[in-house]
Write a structure and sequence with these properties.
- InterPro entries: 4Fe4S_Fe-S-bd (IPR017896), Fe-S_Ferredoxin (IPR050572).
- One of its GO terms (molecular function) is oxidoreductase activity.
- The chain has seven helices and four strands; from the N terminus they run ααααααβββαβ.
- It is mainly alpha-helical.
- It has two domains: 1-88, no CATH class; 90-145, Alpha-Beta Plaits (2-Layer Sandwich).
- A two-stranded antiparallel sheet has the order 1-4. A two-stranded antiparallel sheet has the order 2-3.
Length: 148
């Protein structure tokens, strides 16, 4: 069932991209999918209405709740990252004034957060970060934040 819901989220993104004037080919390339599936999305043949309703509900959730759900639905984390960027238009910022160097964020399973030696600061590798926002929820002092 998670893959059906993820398909619904992809369909919502595809429909929105089409409304912005993107070509079917561009949408297929962005979502790394076959153009025939994008055609089904755009013409309402797939996924089912029920899946679309659930997907739209997930997308309408506040980002703090929607992002973990979307992240948990798929194995391809780069596609998940693209979906999250497209839906929420966010990034993660660090407030070093608040950081207490507890190291919880360094447990990132994607290796996106590292320490640099000057004043024991942390940095985010934007290429490795998949925007799962686990670091934000793990930070005990709110030094990591989701920003638009």
């Amino acid at each position: 069932m998670p893959e059906h819901i993820l398909s619904g989220i992809k369909a919502v993104v595809a429909i929105n991209m089409r409304k912005e004037g993107k070509l079917q080919r561009e949408i297929a390339e962005f979502l790394e999918m076959d153009r025939s599936i994008i055609s089904h999305y755009l013409h309402g043949r797939y996924p089912s209405d029920k899946v679309m309703r659930v997907s739209e509900e997930i997308i309408s959730l506040p980002k703090e709740h929607g992002i973990p759900l979307i992240t948990s639905l798929g194995d391809n984390k780069q596609i998940t990252k693209k979906l999250i960027e497209r839906i929420y238009n966010i990034t993660i910022s660090i407030d070093m004034e608040k950081c207490i160097a507890c190291g919880k964020c360094l447990e990132c399973e994607y290796g996106a957060i590292s320490v640099y030696s000057e004043d024991i600061g942390i940095s985010i590798d934007r290429e490795k970060c998949i925007l799962c926002c686990k670091c934000v929820s793990e930070c005990p002092v709110g030094a990591l934040k989701i920003v638009k």
